[in-house]
Amino acid sequence: MEKKVPMRTCIACKAVKPKKELIRIVKSEDDISLDRTGRKNGRGAYICDDEKCVAKLKKGKLLNRAFSCNVTEETYDKIAEEFLGK
């Protein structure tokens, strides 16, 4: 019997891909950050491993909707820096 592959949707481009191909952004009680391990506690949203999707994230303020809270510009910049730093 084949194991079911968990699928997730990128919040920027709406592409549905296997969970392992996407990067998780996690909102914990006091912070929003990238979670490359997929193991941190908190609410997660997924994004493609692509600079275009990171740019869309900030332009459309997509984390505000995903996490139902107001996300600051500094947080979007921090996520972009973390992403580019890989």
Main features:
globular, three-stranded antiparallel β-sheet, alpha+beta, 86 residues, 3 helices, 26% strand, two-stranded antiparallel ribbon
What features would you describe in this structure?
The strands form two sheets. A three-stranded antiparallel beta sheet has the order 4-3-5. Strands 1-2 form a two-stranded antiparallel sheet. Helix 1 packs antiparallel against helix 3. It is built from three helices and five strands, in the order E-E-E-E-E-H-H-H. It is globular and about 45 Å long. It is an alpha+beta fold and about 90 residues long. The model has no long low-confidence stretch (mean pLDDT about 95). Strand 3 and strand 4 form a beta hairpin. The protein is about 35% helix and about 25% strand.
